[in-house]
Amino acid sequence: MIEVKDLHKAFGDVRAVDGVGFTARDGEITGLLGPNGAGKTTTLRMLYTLMTPDRGQVLVDGIDAAVDPLAVRRRLGVLPDARGLYKRLTARENIDYFARLQGLPEDELRTRREALVQALDMGDIADRRTEGFSQGQRVKTAIARALIHDPGNVILDEPTNGLDVMATRALRQFMLKLRAEGRCVLFSSHIMQEVGALCDRIVVIARGRVVADETPDALRAQTGEANLEDAFVKIIGSDEGLAA
Amino acid sequence: MNAIQPNRVRRRRAFLTVFLKEVRENLRDRRTLISAFVTGPLLTPLIFVMLISVSIHRELDKAEQPLKVPVIGAQYAPNLIDALKAGGIVPQPAIANPEQAVREQAADLVLRLSAEYPKAWRRGEPVQVELIYDSSQRDTGSSVDRVNQLVQSYARQQGVMRLVARGLSPGTAWPVQVARRDQATAESRAVLLFNMLPYLFVLTIFIGGMYLAIDLTAGERERQSLEPLFANPVPRWKILLGKLAAICTFSTASLLICLLAFSLVGRFLPTDKLGMEINLGWHFAANVLLLQWPMIVLLAALQSLVAAFAKSYREAQTYLSLLMMLPILPSILLMVMPVKPQDWMYAVPLLGQHLGIIDLLRGTGVAPLHMLLCLAGTAAAALLAVAVGMQLYRSERLAISG
């Protein structure tokens, strides 16, 4: 479970995150929706302790990220906005590197890795160097790398960015599987269809603030719009930066 | 107990994991390999040996080979010409405009005897012999000296004979005589030539680690892999230490190859012909390695620091090539103003290594105190640089590329 309380983060005069708070529960998919530049990535970066909030608190499974960041990172699987694979290493070697940094014993590493390679259907690319991988192959490798230590909480920053239809569908299935396994899945997106189709709960962020935190049905009811897209536009107050 | 054990294992592995991964990844990069194991360590010994050989052979050639000198008015002083011929000078026919010929480098030097020569000689008066040359032509220096010395010794010999003919002791004309007692040993003479060597070693270390240092900080950030890396439950300073260890491994390998090349190639240097002795064998290599190890760490940390400040791979490359100029300073400084080495100088990074290697070349060996000062001084600087690097790695902005 991930609890976020009143997060603030400013870069100079720009208040990128200005009082964001929400809870992402286990066994649920929580979507962080907002236009480009709303503060989604900065919020997530504070969750996985890459950045320190100016104010506010992050709790992962009840552990304060400011007190024990290493324990928090051990409980998180992170797919950052920057996928950043090592192109001179094969997909398997990329995964192994992170597994060892997570401190996985070698035998467990092998079983976990092969299970993920199968689940993500990447058997044919696993022993190729990642240089020249397609966007979809890159995301798969990065996700396998992020989940190698079997984390209870999964953070995905714009996971479907740049993927084609088939890859997007496969990824959605995979996220549903993670939910079925009882994990807490938190992902950010600016694509409404995706959020509407997948999420148990939607947190809408605009201009660094949470403007809505509801189930998709409740959002529709609250705004009086049958169509989710119209509901979002109404909440955010403009349709700037949103994609269908 | 059970709770502590896995943590300990995990900790040791993080450093090793980063180190092994960086080494493996960079062993797959052709550019890094070539610069660390071929061009860096081998190019410098080759160029060095070529330069030394060429300059040695040139000196030898000049001393032994007949020297052709155009002489104007040779017919006035047949005895002087004979003396010059005995000294290996081959008189050439006179040329019309000697000043111009020298300026245009058609001739290195020209000897001119005036028509007054025979008359003055018979009267026992001093006569003038003109040497026309251009001292801005560096090449002609030794030829001019050679002709000058031959003329001088001929003059002295004739002077002695005149004094003896008048019944005087030759000593009256030279009340003071200089006796030169050169204390240079065969090894210390070689040092002049080998002054560049300490810089070449530092350069080799620098080039050996350079591509790694760029790749592991600026490169990793540019490829955006630093952010996922930092999401792992490993303190950043441990990641930095693993990376530094990888850089040091490559630069040490580079230095070893370079030392090996020097020890092989040193045997073919014709230094003995100049009365020099140079020993670049195992003893020398081991001592250089000992002197340089804190320098290896210091350079790795400095390179990482500079690369971490750069915004991109290219920018890091530019900064690092500027930083490469730094190690040449002690060599140049000592060449321009030769000072007597003081104890404290050994504690200064770069300068200490320079003096230490010169001591080794001189054949005296490095005094234990100097070795200690050199190691301690550079190690302190290296620790400081690593500490600054660790601090820099804690910065939030380091990981973020966008």
From TrEMBL, chain A:
Sequence ranges assigned to domain ABC transporter in this UniProt record: 2-232
Gene3D superfamilies: P-loop containing nucleotide triphosphate hydrolases (3.40.50.300)
Alphabetical keyword list: ATP-binding, Nodulation, Nucleotide-binding, Transport
SMART domains in the cross-refs: AAA
CDD domains per the UniProt record, alphabetical: ABC_NatA_sodium_exporter
Keyword Phosphoprotein in annotation: no
GO molecular function ontology, one term from the record: ATP binding
Presence of the UniProt keyword Kinase in the record: no
UniProt cross-references to PROSITE patterns, sorted A to Z: ABC_TRANSPORTER_2 (PS50893)
PANTHER family with a match to the protein in the record: ABC TRANSPORTER ATP-BINDING PROTEIN, ABC TRANSPORTER ATP-BINDING PROTEIN NATA
Family according to the record: Belongs to the ABC transporter superfamily.
Protein name per Swiss-Prot or TrEMBL: ATP-binding cassette domain-containing protein
Native organism: Rhodanobacter caeni
From TrEMBL, chain B:
Any one Pfam family match given in the protein's UniProt record, by short name: ABC2_membrane_3
Segments traversing the membrane: 33-56, 196-218, 239-264, 284-307, 319-339, 369-393
Subcellular location: Membrane
Membrane topology: Multi-pass membrane protein
Keyword Membrane attributed: yes
Domain ABC-2 type transporter transmembrane span(s) in chain numbering: 32-386
InterPro entries assigned: ABC2_TM
Chief subcellular location: membrane
Domain of life per record: Bacteria
Keywords: Membrane, Transmembrane, Transmembrane helix
Protein name: ABC transporter permease
